[in-house]
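Here is a typical protein record:
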Amino acid sequence: MKHGLFVFIVAFLLNFVWENLHSVLYLNYRGGFISEYILARSAVVDAFMVTLIVLVVLHLSFFKQKTLSIVVVGFVVATGLEIWALQSVRWAYAPSMPLIPLLNVGVSPAVQLAITGLVALYLSGLARLKLSTT
């Protein structure tokens, strides 16, 4: 339980920084201004998703390559979320947002959960604890 909480805290801090850095690549959120409150709320959701991804991957024997699995699952979840958000007009990209061809989603949001998940895994110390026992 405490490891999951620590992953969540680390993931929140990483995602809050990420959200602030890449917010300039968006035009709006639901047609309005992107405030610090919106960025913080997004970071909480991201941290929850990262924590869930990390804990599920580490605890299910289905995932043999744990770190690679966190990256792949993080990318798939983030890309799916991004496609849904764009189709439901939750946000819009600025012209400066680099896109992944064929998927037409932003590079930054697509890799966000993969990268912050991997970094949170290692910064939380959970990688050392879980990966050394598998």
